Every structure is written in C-alpha cells, then in structure tokens.
C-alpha cells in the first residue's frame, strides 16, 4: 500500500516537472489553480447591486485573510474599551422602527471598543493610523453593532480588496518591518496603483491620524445603511459620533515621543478619565437621504471612498453616548468582544455599498477562528440582554444546555418551536429592494472619480493643517526606498493639488509634476477642519513643576481654581515625597522628572521654589521648551516666572504669567485653545 502511494506521488511530481512556469509572468489563480480574470471587483447583481454568495473567489480570498492571525485580530488588534449608556434625544420613528431609537429619553446599555488598525497588540497607541470606534448596543430586540472609524471614508471600494490594503499596510513579510506604520514601500506602492485610496490617504496624512485622546475623536460609520420605518419606507443613512470635548490631535514630534515614553497613552487616558468621573460623551448624528434622491449628488452615495458633505446633507443629532464604567477584565471583555456590521435590529438595514457587502461576510468569518468557533455569542461580553432561541447546536465552547430532542425546523414534537416571528410582531425582515442585473464583476462608472473629494478635503484644511499634511507625506513617502514608488505617489496626488504634490516632491527627491490633471473642485466644508471644533479646558491635564520653598498660598489657590474648571494636574519635582511651601503647606509629588515627560501633558505650569538645584533647573528648562515647540499653553507664577525670562518665553502667545483669579481665567482659556498655532517656534 505504501509502495503504491510512493509511486503515485512520484508520478505526480514527474507530471509537475512538465509544466514550465515563467516566474516573471505570474498569472493570478485561486488556491485551486483556477486562473481568475478579475481580482478587484466582487460578483454583483448588476453594477450597483448586492454581492452574490456564489462569488467563490471573494469568499476564498477573504476567508484566507480572516484566518491569517492567531489569536489576535488581523486588524484592530490594539484596543481598549469601556461600558456605558446611550440615551435617545428624540423619537426617530418617522425613519426607523428600531425600538432603542423610538422614544426620547430611552436608555440602552452599550460597550465601546477603541483601537488602532494596523499595529499588533503590543504596538503603541500614538502611531499614525486610522482608529476604530465600535459600539455594541444591548437592545431589547437583540444586539446592534455600530462599527465605525475616526475617518468617514475608506481606502477601497470593494470588500474583495480588503486583504490587499491590509497586506500592503502591515509590516513587510520578508523582515516584518515596520511595525504599526505606513511609512514603507508596499503601502505606498499600493496607494499609487490603487488610486481610489486618494481620499482616505489625505485623511491619514492629516492630524486626524494622531488623536490626542479617544475622548476627543470624531467617528463615522463609513458605509451607507438604511433606516426602515413601520410603514416599510426606507431612507439611506450614515452615522456619526461627535465628541463633546471637540476633535483634537497631537503633533507628529509629540506623537513619536509619546510612543516611547508611554505607549499606552490613549488607553491610559480613557481609563483614568472614567476612574476620575470625567465620563467621555459623544453625540450620535445621522445623515439621511430619501431614496428618490439616490442619484441627486455629484458622487455615488454608495461609494465608501466618498463622504456626504454636511453642507449638502446636514447631520441631525439624535442621542448621546456616555462611557461611565471601565472593564473588569481586559481579556474577557475587550479582547473577546465580537463586532459585526451585520448585527442589526428591525429598522436598520443594508445598502449595496460593495465594501459593506464584503464586511457582512468577513466579520463573522473572522470570529469563527479568533474566538474558537460559532458560539462566540455566548461569551458574556457578547451575550444579548434578551434570551435567544434557535436550532443551532454544539460546536466549540458551547455553554447553552439545550433540553429536549428537537433541533430542527419545522417540527411537531416541540409544537414547531422555536417559531419564526412575523414582521408586524417584531421579526426582522430584509428591506425588499428591487434588484435587476446581469451577474458581473464591474463597478458603476459613478465610482470612478477618485480625486474630487480628496480636493474637497484639501480645500477645507487650514494653513496649519495643510502644512501637517505636507509634512506627513514627506515623512511617510520619504521613508520609501524605491524612488519609482515615490515618483508615482507624487504624480498621483498632483491630481488632487499641484502645490501639495510639488511641496512633497521637493522634500523627497522626486520630480515635481509638470502636466498634472489637477482637480478643479473649489468647494470646501467647515465640518472637515479641526480648527472649527469645540474648545474646552475640561479634563485637560497640566504638569505642575514645583520644588521646596514655593509660595503655597498662591499655588493652592491656583490649583483649586484649575480643578474648579474641570482641569486635572500632576505635581512634578526632582524627588518623590512631599514638597513644602513657605507657609509650611505641602503637596505630594506625583512624578519625578524621570518618571514622566512634557509630551504627556496638555499644558505646563511652572511654580518653581526657593530651592532649585542644577538638576531641577535643567529639567524645568527642558519641560518648558518641549511644551513651547509643541504649541502647548504654558503658565508660570511666583518663582516660576524667572524660568520664562531665562528661556525668552514670556510674552509669547499662549504663555500666561501671574497669580490669583485673573491668572486662573487666562490660563484656563489658554488651555482650552489646545494649541497656539500662531506662536513663533524656531
């Protein structure tokens, strides 16, 4: 028997030798060797229709991708989470029969997970990346998952290309470098050869890619969904999360240093804020388009690389999310929570957005491997608050003990239970959209404009934000070793804006564009610039530099005043223990200069003291200059004012000195500004 197997194997090898393979002309095939004519478009019913289950190439490609990592998530591996509550502001029954949106004041428990996309679980929080914002609503009709990102568009239009963009973004396979970064050849090669990514890349190069805090991060549902009301009338809808603290970011030098000083910066910030009772709040907004207006815009509303400008489709605020409790166990909750855009409730349905269609398959497929089988819904953090009944049985990690001998539908032995629920009794029924078309791998021509909204985004940026984008492109593309890829990127983004491409080209050794087909879009949107966001000093953290011999009466008054404005602070000095003031009062030191860093604070307040060693003097100077060059507010009183004078900082924009109520007011206003961009920084 074994001899026959060996003969068969030898015969097989001999046959394979007869195939002449030209490695320079590799042809795309499935894993079964079937040559494929298309690798960028899913099989759909008509060019704008839904993706078909029979698309074996899509399912093979995405299934293989979903199962590439064990046990962490393939993407969004680095995350943190919290429990909370969602409260509806007003009834949305006009648009949706979803019960958790049916009545003003209705409250629903939620669980929200924030994450970076590219990095492994052990990567840093402050890398340049897209951020995830996924929320599970534990409603009376079952779990509803709103899976969002902090950018409203995505790199690709079709879910079949998701493995490609992630492969390109991940560390390069020959050496697994770099970690959690797009500053390498394969990512930018993908961008240059997949120009639908232009709009998302503009967002990725903007300050949005390095948020100051998850508490100060806007988020978007990206895909186009449907609201369906009790009468069966549907509207297209997009979802937005608007942070009550405004949208604020780090500067790049600061983000890089934080990654080394405190790689857990964002997750620590979220955890500490909740522990202190500074509960993060976000308002839920929706953009709604009537079905009759589906083709009324100069972009395709189903294209996930496009946003709906808020000036054209206003955002209606319909409720508020408050995160008010940290997890009890990180692994059991944060790591094991499973989100899926297909977890919906009656009144929320899908569109033919081709990226969404792919996600509806991929998310469940991923959980099957990552959480060990089909029963991940029985893990406590995923379990709905309502009882569930069906005929699904067994599988890995089954916890439900089903009684009786019936596990099929239809039946008479169990009185035909569990029974389907009619739509008018709360059962879910898919929206009956008329679909007509040939089975094709095509995309509507309405998806072909890749640069107009990228130009809209550029037009909407302030001068400071534009410079950030130029610097980000210069750093990221400048890290690419292949000069031909650098040139391709420059040529590509000349289609967005020639000045942008020229500035980047000059910085990275590429040839500036000469005959660019630059977008002619002149429109802008105030909603896209962070300069127009809310500004508040609440929950900001101040580093207070202090030493023995400080004026305790004045300082205590100021610290109490800052607390009254919702500002937190940490005492920093040369040594641990207590520092003593001139009147005998004392303050406990939270950090020495070596256990913290100026990049970890929103502002620096220098008090000083009559005792100041060379070490104290040197470190105070370092803290002031780091805060100053990162455009942060600086305060000083009493002995601390001389440090401003020595470093020529007094009188600068965003630098406040003095004492008493006037100082508290002015310093609070300076902190609320977040950054003082008009400051002259050498």
Automatic annotation (TrEMBL):
Claim: Iron is one of the keywords in the record: yes
EC number(s) given by UniProt: 1.11.1.6
GO molecular-function term, one example from the UniProt record: catalase activity
3'-histidyl-3-tyrosine (His-Tyr) crosslink location in chain: 340-363
Active site: 76, 149
Region (Disordered): 1-39, 509-528
Domain Catalase core positions: 29-417
Gene3D superfamilies cross-referenced by the UniProt entry: 1.20.1370.20, 3.40.50.880, Catalase core domain (2.40.180.10)
Name listed for the protein in its UniProt record: Catalase
UniProt source species: Oceanobacillus halophilus
């Amino acid at each position: 028997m074994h001899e026959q197997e060996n003969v068969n194997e030898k015969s097989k090898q001999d046959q394979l030798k007869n195939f002449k393979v030209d490695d320079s002309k590799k042809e795309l095939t499935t894993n079964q060797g079937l040559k494929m004519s298309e690798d960028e478009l899913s099989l759909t019913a008509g060019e704008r229709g839904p993706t078909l289950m029979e698309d074996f190439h899509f399912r093979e490609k995405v299934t293989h991708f979903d199962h590439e990592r064990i046990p962490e998530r393939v993407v969004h591996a680095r995350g943190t989470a919290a429990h909370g509550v969602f409260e509806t502001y007003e009834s949305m029954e006009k648009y949706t029969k979803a019960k958790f949106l049916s009545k003003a004041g209705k409250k629903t428990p939620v669980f929200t997970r924030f994450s970076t996309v590219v990095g492994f679980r052990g990567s840093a929080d402050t890398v340049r990346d897209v951020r995830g914002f996924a929320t599970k609503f534990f409603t009376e009709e079952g779990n509803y998952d709103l899976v969002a990102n902090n950018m409203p568009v995505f790199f690709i239009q079709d879910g079949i290309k998701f493995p490609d963009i992630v492969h390109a973004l991940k560390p390069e396979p020959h050496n697994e470098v770099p970690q959690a970064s797009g500053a390498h050849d394969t990512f930018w090669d993908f961008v240059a050869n997949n120009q639908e990514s232009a709009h998302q890349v503009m967002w990725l190069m903007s300050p949005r890619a390095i948020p100051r805090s998850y508490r100060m991060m806007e988020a978007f549902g990206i895909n186009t969904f449907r609201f369906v009301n009790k009468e069966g009338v549907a509207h297209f809808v997009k979802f937005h999360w608007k942070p009550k603290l405004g949208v604020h970011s780090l500067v790049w030098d600061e983000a890089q240093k934080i990654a080394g000083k405190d790689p857990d910066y964002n997750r620590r910030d979220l955890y500490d804020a909740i522990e202190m009772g500074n509960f993060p709040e976000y308002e839920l907004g929706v953009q709604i388009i009537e079905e009759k207006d589906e083709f009324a815009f100069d972009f395709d509303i189903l294209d996930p690389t496009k946003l709906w400008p808020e000036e054209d489709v206003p955002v209606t605020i319909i409720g508020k999310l408050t995160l008010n409790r940290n997890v009890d166990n990180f692994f059991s909750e944060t790591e094991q929570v499973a989100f899926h855009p297909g977890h919906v409730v009656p009144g929320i349905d899908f569109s033919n957005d081709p990226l969404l269609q792919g996600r509806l398959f991929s998310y469940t497929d991923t959980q099957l491997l990552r959480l060990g089988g089909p029963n991940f819904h029985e893990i406590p953090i995923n379990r709905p608050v309502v009882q569930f009944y069906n005929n699904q049985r067994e599988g890995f990690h089954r916890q439900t003990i089903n009684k009786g001998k019936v596990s099929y539908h239809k039946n008479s032995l169990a009185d035909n239970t569990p029974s389907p629920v009619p739509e008018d009794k709360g059962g879910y029924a898919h929206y009956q959209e008329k679909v007509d078309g040939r089975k094709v791998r095509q995309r509507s021509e309405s998806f072909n404009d890749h640069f107009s909204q990228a130009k809209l985004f550029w037009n909407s940026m302030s001068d400071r934000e534009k410079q950030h984008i130029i610097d980000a492109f210069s750093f990221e593309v400048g890290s690419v070793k292949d000069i031909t890829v650098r040139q391709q990127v420059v040529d590509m983004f000349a289609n967005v804006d020639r000045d942008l491409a020229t500035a980047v080209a000059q910085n990275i050794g590429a040839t500036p564009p000469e005959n660019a087909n630059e977008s002619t879009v002149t429109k802008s949107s105030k909603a896209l610039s962070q300069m127009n966001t809310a500004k508040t000093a609440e929950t900001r953290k101040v580093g207070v530099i202090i030493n023995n011999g400080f004026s305790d009466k004045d300082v205590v008054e100021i610290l109490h005043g800052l607390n009254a404005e919702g500002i937190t602070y940490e005492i920093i000095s040369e040594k641990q223990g207590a520092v003593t003031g001139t009147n005998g009062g004392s303050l406990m030191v939270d950090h020495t200069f070596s256990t913290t860093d100026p990049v970890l604070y929103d502002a620096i307040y220098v008090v000083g003291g009559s005792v100041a060693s060379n070490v104290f003097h040197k470190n105070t100077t370092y803290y002031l200059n780091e805060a100053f060059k990162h455009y942060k507010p600086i305060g000083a009183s009493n002995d601390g004012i001389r440090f401003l004078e020595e470093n020529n900082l007094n009188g600068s924009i965003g630098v406040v000195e003095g004492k008493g109520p006037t100082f508290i007011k002015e310093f609070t206003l300076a902190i609320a500004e977040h950054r003082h961009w008009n400051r002259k920084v050498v």
